[in-house]
Each structure stands twice: as C-alpha cells, then as structure tokens.
C-alpha cells in the first residue's frame, strides 16, 4: 500500500483583511478602555469625551464589515483608507478638546450646560439629576498630557498609519 506524502499547503494571509482585523481590535479596545475608565475608575466623561469615542466606533464598524463580508480586496483597501480619514476627524475632535482644556478657545455650549434662565423646568430638573461635567476640567494627566492630548496623538498616528498602509496595499496588488 503506497502512501503518498503530501506537503502541507502554506497558509496564506490576506494583508488587507489582517489590517482591518487589527483596526477592529484598536477600535473596540479604545472604546473598552474608555468604558473601563468611566465605570471602573469613576472618570466622568464630558460631552467632548463622548464625541471622541465615535470615530473609534465608526472604525470598528467599517473594519467589521471588511473582515466579515465577502468584499473585494479593492473595497477592503478603501475601508482602510476611510478608517484613516475617520481617525483624522477623531484627531480634530480631540485637538479641539485639548484647546478647550487649555482655554485656547471657548467650549461649545454643551460643555458648560445651558444657562438656567434659558431652560424649561423639565430641562432644569434633567440637568440636576444628570450633571454635566465641564469640558475644560481635566481629571487625568499622564506625562503632562490629558487623555484628550494622548487621543490627539494616537488618532494622528493611526490616521497616518491607515493612509500609508492603504497606499502600500494598493501598490502591492490590484484585485
């Protein structure tokens, strides 16, 4: 009885799909860290803190689509580029928050609440029971930067990384 020795087939890794999987981990990880800070360590987010979570959720959603759906490589590469643009928007939001914290510019009205004279009784009661944290109040600094400052840096690095990776993947193949 002849047994034919078969060589194992090499495992092929799709670099575009792996990039999207990494972005999915980044997006979910950032949101998870924010929630741990909020609920485990009692860091109360202001409205700008909450806005800074949105780009990570968008990137996680785009990445999940790219990983789970049977899309072409070209569409997946475009999702990586879109993630880069979303991270640029996230960097702008975070930088705006840094400016509010440093008093470079005034906060949006949602950061400080509505003046009592301009509220209805229902709005006033709602604000009493759910106090809003001012956006210029910094709870945590690490190496001299607030969390918004670190998010500005991280978002810029991620944006550049996504855009460079998208370009690299585009020059590597054409499917």
UniProtKB/TrEMBL annotation:
Pfam families (UniProt xref): DsbB (PF02600)
Transmembrane residue ranges: 20-41, 53-72, 79-98, 142-164
Places the protein is found: Cell membrane
UniProt-listed Gene3D superfamilies: DsbB-like
Keywords: Cell membrane, Membrane, Transmembrane, Transmembrane helix
Bilayer topology term: Multi-pass membrane protein
GO molecular function, one term: protein-disulfide reductase activity
A single GO cellular-component term on record: plasma membrane
One GO process term, biological-process aspect: protein folding
Keyword Membrane appears in the UniProt entry: yes
Family matches, as PANTHER family: DISULFIDE BOND FORMATION PROTEIN B (PTHR36570)
Protein name per the record: Disulfide bond formation protein B
Species whose genome carries this gene: Defluviicoccus vanus
